[in-house]
Amino acid sequence: MPLTADEAKLKMLLKAAVVEVLEERRDLVRDALADAVEDIGLVRAIEVGSRSKAISRAEVFKILQKNR
Fold it and tell me: How many separate domains does the chain show?
């Protein structure tokens, strides 16, 4: 289905706005990507943790103290 003139204009304006944000506010894009990568890492860590053996709180602190 072909776009109407108004839809084509809206699409062009939206593309221009996205390009402008990408060019002028790289920090926003960088922050969004960093957040996404962090979220992926957390999800993977949770998945691995859910399949591993549980340990006591004391054991966790012992490991953390050893790695200081």
Answer: 1
Whether the CB-CB separation of 22 and 30 falls below 8 Å is answered with: no
CB 28 within 8 A of CB 34: no
With cut-offs at 50, 70 and 90, classify the pLDDT of residue 5: confident
Position 54: which residue type? A
pLDDT digits (tens, 9 = 90+) for 23-59: 999 998 899 999 999 999 999 999 999 999 999 999 9
2 inside domain? no
Q: Cα 37 to the chain's mean position, in Å?
A: 5
- pTM, entire model: 0.53
Distance, CA of 32 to CA of 8 (rounded, Å): 28
Domain limits at 35?
A: 25-68
